[in-house]
Amino acid sequence: MPRLLLPLLLVLSFFSSSTLADEYRDTVKMFQDADAPNAFFKSAYGYAVFPTIGKAGFFIGGAYGEGRVYQHNKFTGTTTMTQASVGFQLGGQAYSQIIFFEDARAYNEFTSGNFEFSAQASAIAITAGASAEAGTKGTGTSASGGQNNATTSANYYRGMATFVIAKGGLMYEAAIAGQKFSFTPK
What we know:
It comes from Hydrogenovibrio crunogenus. InterPro entries: Ysc84_actin-binding. Keywords: Signal. Residues 83-152 form the Ysc84 actin-binding domain. This is Twin-arginine translocation pathway signal. This protein is α+β, with helices and mostly antiparallel strands and 186 residues long. The protein has one domain. It has 4 helices and 7 strands, in the order αααββαβββββ. The strands form 2 sheets. Strands 1, 2, 3, 4 and 7 form a 5-stranded mixed beta sheet that branches.
């Protein structure tokens, strides 16, 4: 019996809330250290942070991630993100995402229960590589050498600004996708 107790305790400690808190703190720090989103931390009303979102697709794709929502840097609840996509896509990837809320209206809209980003919403990629975006605000492309020297910049669009940092994987896609978020107060 004692031989089984040690592995069980190790597994439970891995999933402890302090480990999760560290994961969120580390993800926020990673975005703070990147040039593009840094200014948003100073002026945003709040934000939602997702340490890891997993995404996969083979013509039809999907993504899922769990996150936390903050208002004036105070934890207010949890959120989940689901995404469905259709179009040419092949592969899988993992990434971190943060959504900044410009004001109370945007925060309240996101935390109202079920919030959806339409296919026109776009994120700014801030890791090495190239990205392109198209939406109702126009089209654009960007390239950066790394997460700390990204050359992209973003503005709020309908009260929200989204940034993504790739963690790994390989995915080719030319697809239309929409993200849906749920919120559970603390």
